[in-house]
Design brief:
The protein is mainly β. The chain has one domain. It contains three helices and 16 strands. The N and C termini lie far apart (about 40 Å). The structure holds copper (II) ion (CU).
Length: about 300
């Protein structure tokens, strides 16, 4: 959603590298193996993200649980998320909010209440829940080149996506809240399914950064502090190069209570989970409130 007025440099550079580093399907001739079992029997939402548009999404779908399959062909951007428009707002109204976004102090209040399914950056698969209402598919970034598109989700208000027992098996579960991540289960090297749940009161997203060397939470805190103040680290400080942190997975913004499952393929190494959604109270990205977590994926 609208970024805070003065985005700290690290956040800005991460957002940029996110765009560049996330896997794009265009260079990849072999399709990735399906991450989610066909036995789940989930209806599929296929979307191709080009430099200009989201292609292939239907204008209307029944409420329920979906396998979101994204082919990212954009040289810039490429995340997909679904957001339910607040009552009385249509696509044009949302576009107007985006247009004034950069001048605004932060996201509008309704942003903190409305449903957001989560989705993924780059090519890949996720399982998401859509409830009845007027939705938009968008890039989870007000400055993205791809305009949001409207999608009506039909069904009565009581429709529950979990009916039918089609819950994907997850190898690990990440919960997000104010202001941290908790990882349950072991994140393993190789392809896997990660369940992501926002159990907090505000929206959150999850950027997974890979680091070539071990990184501690204290070092992440120091990066953020340096970024905020514009100070330079003293020569005796042992800090990994922040430019060496590469985003490898992006789970786009999820509203309070939302659950999603994402397919990820992790190499052994050191990782940082971090959230930059602007805080409801302070307007600062959640990372500055301590919303980050380090973990290691052990391997040969
Ligand atoms: Cu957050």
């Amino acid at each position: 959603m609208p970024r805070p007025p003065s985005l700290p440099a690290l956040v800005a550079s991460l957002a940029l590298s996110l765009v560049v580093a996330l896997p794009a399907a265009a260079q990849d001739a072999t399709p990735a193996p399906a991450a989610f079992a066909e036995e789940l029997g989930l209806p599929e939402l296929r979307v191709t993200v080009t430099d200009e548009a989201f292609e292939g999404l239907p204008a209307e779908v029944p409420a329920g649980r979906y396998l979101l399959s994204v082919e990212a062909r954009a040289t810039e951007g490429g995340a997909v998320d679904f957001l339910r428009l607040p009552d009385g707002m249509d696509l044009t109204g949302f576009e107007a909010v985006l247009a004034e976004g950069s001048a605004a102090e932060g996201p509008p209040e309704w942003y903190y209440q409305t449903a957001m399914t989560g989705g993924i950056g780059g090519s890949g698969e996720a399982v998401i829940d859509l409830t009845p209402g007027e939705w938009i598919a968008w890039a989870d970034d007000p400055e993205a080149a791809q305009p949001p598109i409207a999608m009506t989700v039909t069904g009565d208000g009581g429709a529950t996506p979990t009916a039918g027992g089609t819950e994907p098996a997850a190898d690990a579960t990440v919960t997000m809240y104010e202001y941290d991540f908790t990882v349950e289960g072991e994140l393993q090297p190789g392809p896997q399914v990660i369940a992501v749940a926002n159990v907090g009161a505000q929206p959150h997203h999850m950027i997974v950064l890979r680091s070539p060397e071990a990184v501690t939470e204290e070092q992440v805190a120091r990066f953020l502090e340096l970024d905020m103040t514009g100070a330079t680290p003293s020569p005796e400080e042992e800090l990994p190069d922040p430019d060496a942190l590469v985003p490898v997975v992006y789970v786009s913004t999820m509203s309070s209570g939302a659950r999603a499952w994402v397919a990820a393929n992790l190499e052994p190494g050191y990782y940082v989970l971090i959230c930059f959604v602007p805080d409801l109270a302070s307007g600062m990205p959640h990372a500055f409130e301590g919303m980050y977590q380090v973990f290691e994926v052990a391997g040969a």
